[in-house]
Amino acid sequence: MKVVWMEQAEEALNNTTNYINGQFGKKASERLLREVYHLGCLLESNPHLGAIEPLMAHRAMTYRSIVVNRLSKIVYRIVEDHIEIADFWDTRREPVAQAAKVEE
Q1: The overall pTM is greater than 0.70
Q2: Using H for helix, E for strand and C for coil, what is the string for the chain?
């Protein structure tokens, strides 16, 4: 399956990598991008790899999430012939608020 990043998810990932780059350097932000890319490749061949996201279980669409590292995770859904990355969460932030901002 093809992985498609939604605009909101791309923006969140860009914001996170820009922050990491400014605080910890280019090497750290590149490491995060490698981890995200690796998980994207894994999702292409195994879309059900992530667990159902409990904060979004009440929604009509099934959202799943997969932990990138201890500070971030990818939230996605399987749509017919592709996987939509709906958001990229900073796990240090309020999780209920992050779940509420993901568009259906």
Answers
A1: yes
A2: CEEEECHHHHHHHHHHHHHHHHHHCHHHHHHHHHHHHHHHHHHHHCCCCCEECHHHCCCCCCEEEEEEECCEEEEEEEECCEEEEEEEEECCCCHHHHHHHCCC
